[in-house]
Amino acid sequence: MKHLLTTFFLALAAAATAQDTTRVDSVPASFADTSASPAAPAYEFRGVWMASVDNIDWPARGQYNPDSQRIDFRRQLDLHKANGMNAVVVQVRPAADAFYPSPYEPWSQWLTGQQGRPPVPFYDPMQFGIEEAHKRGMEYHAWLNPYRAVFSTRSSSIAPAHVTRLHPEWFVTYGSTRYFDPGNPEAQQWVVNVVKDIVERYDVDAIHMDDYFYPYRIAGKEFPDSASYRLYGNGLTKDAWRRSNTDSIITKIGRAIRATKPWVKFGISPFGVWRNKSQDPEGSNTQAGVTNYDDLYADILLWLREGWIDYVTPQIYWEIGHPRAEYATLVDWWAKHAYGRHVYIGHGIYRFYEKAPAWHRKDQIPRQIEILRRYPEIQGSVYFSSKSFERNPNGWNDTLRLNHYRLPAEVPPMPWLPARPKAAQ
């Protein structure tokens, strides 16, 4: 998520200057005055992403002692609970690896320092995390990266039993990263099997996937899937074929979840822009250099319309008044394209630690919350990411605790899903 935001900003043909990014003249008039803030709802999703890839949030780099890992995980949960959160989205499969004992994939290098090495003394981090979240009345969403297999071909630890060694024909290298070939049906089925195994064995509340389906483009380099296109293209254009591949993995995962535990939710966190209006009359009034539909081959609107997913968390990591991807404009657009599914807005709270002046305004996050609460089609927020809260950026922890999240909220129910059986609670 965060690492590839740089790609987007570089892709904007005329990047906004620091002065431009603080403009508020482009904010819709209905959002200009937040003095009459909507009341805190009784049902609202309030989540935090906890990224394990490259030790972004948890566990800390070099923290391989299980007792230390457990202490740190509890500490982060306690912080978020105190801030009013009711869910954590924990990355358990960052690169065809596992933060749990998996029959398919090796232990993650970011857990123990070497891929394939189990924690010593042994424990199951995902089972531990689920229990700790549920003790605090928080949902646990298991976050998987669907197609990244080797984070860095130059430096990643790769176990002898890793799937890239067992089935090298399923993979392609793009830049310095190895990916499952999304057009390979066997590779798709492997990912489905991994998801099904998690849902069968663990009491997760949801399966969550981010924006990394087809990878973000590298300038001057074509994604190397020509061989599988020749085999499986079926007369489609390459772009249409790629989108059909992404549709296929989404439908297969959704069916696997429903067949196993139909009360478990399936959510996607896409890049914040589906398409620009200049590309499609249905698109948003934005000028994004990257879009889900055209660059990541993810037709999120189709998945929402067809009910293939239960919630969407668009990563709207831009500020109110941004000249090319304006926060309020995008919130309005996603609210109008929810198709009855849940929408949780992804906030880029980590941007406080960057130089953009807009993110040093104390009212940036409070106003973002106030804007989204004006829409009944939007049911909450997710923040990237966990450690960003540790230094109480801009006093936002205090704002959440004392104001916007002072009153607790329940996670909004999804009436189209069956209730969790009492035996599973």
Question: What's the topology here?
Answer:
Layout: H1 5-11, E1 45-50, H2 66-82, E2 87-93, H3 109-112, H4 125-135, E3 139-144, E4 148-150, H5 163-166, E5 171-174, E6 177-180, H6 185-201, E7 206-209, H7 226-232, H8 238-260, E8 265-268, H9 292-296, H10 300-306, E9 311-312, H11 327-335, E10 342-347, H12 364-372, E11 380-383, H13 396-404
Parallel strand pairs: 1-2, 1-11, 2-3, 3-7, 7-8, 8-9, 9-10, 10-11
Antiparallel strand pairs: 4-6, 5-6
Helix pairs in contact: 2-4, 6-8
Approximate shape: globular
Q: How many domains would you count in the coordinates?
A: 1
- Rg, alpha carbons: 21 Å
Helix content: 25-40%
Indicate the mean pLDDT: 92
From the N-terminal CA to the C-terminal CA, the straight-line distance is 32 Å
What low-confidence regions span 5 or more consecutive residues with pLDDT below 50? 3-36
Largest sheet: 8 strands, parallel, barrel
DSSP summary: helix tally? 13
CATH superfamily: Glycosidases
- In CATH, the topology is named TIM Barrel
DSSP strand content: 5-15%
Number of strands: 11
Secondary-structure-derived class: alpha/beta
Using the 3D structure, state the CATH architecture. Alpha-Beta Barrel
Strand arrangement within the widest β-sheet reads: 1-2-3-7-8-9-10-11
| The CATH top-level class label | Alpha Beta
Q: How do the helices and strands follow one another from N- to C-terminus?
A: HEHEHHEEHEEHEHHEHHEHEHEH
Organism: Flaviaesturariibacter amylovorans
Pfam families: GHL10
InterPro entries: Divisome_Glycosyl_Hydrolase, GH, GHL10
Keywords: Signal
